[in-house]
Amino acid sequence: MESRKPRRGRGLWKPRVGEEYTVKIIEISRRGDGVARVRGLIVFVPGTSPGEEVKVRITKVGRRHAVGEVIRE
Q1: What's the rounded Cα separation, in Å, for the pair 22 and 3?
Q2: By the 8 A CB rule, do 16 and 58 touch?
Q3: In the chain, what are the domains?
Q4: How far does the chain reach from its first CA to its final CA, in angstroms?
Q5: Is the CB of residue 23 less than 8 Å from the CB of residue 37?
Q6: What is the pLDDT of residues 15-37, one digit of tens each?
Q7: What is the spatial distance between Cα 8 and Cα 19, in angstroms, rounded to a whole number?
Q8: Residue 32 carries which DSSP code?
Q9: Which of 14, 40, 47, 62 is most buried, with most CB under 10 Å away?
């Protein structure tokens, strides 16, 4: 029997570019962007601060994170 390595990211949900979510910023990243989570996935939101609740549009989706921009209404 051969040993198998578990696949990383298998079954992981990812948002699509253009989708919109209301998120709460929980902390600041090392680069100064706000950090939120959508279904467990980290979303970086530039120009936000911890405690803010903002509506974001996803602009980029990476392997383990996404980037969103604040939607001003």
Answers
A1: 43
A2: yes
A3: 20-70 (2.40.50.140)
A4: 59
A5: yes
A6: 999 999 999 999 999 999 999 99
A7: 24
A8: S
A9: 14
Helix, coil or strand: residue 56: strand
Eight-state DSSP code of residue 50: T
Dist. CA 20–CA 13, nearest whole Å: 15
Structural contact between residues 46 and 56, judged by C-beta atoms closer than 8 angstroms: no
Q: Which of 41, 27, 12, 30 is nearest to 58 (CA)?
A: 41
Two structure tokens written together for 53? 């609740």
pTM of the predicted protein model: 0.81
Residue reference for tokens 């990476």: 62
Q: Which residues contact 26 (CB under 8 A, 6 or more apart)?
A: 35, 36, 37, 50
Q: What is the pLDDT of residues 38-59, one digit of tens each?
A: 999 999 999 999 999 999 999 9
Structure tokens given for 54: 């903002």
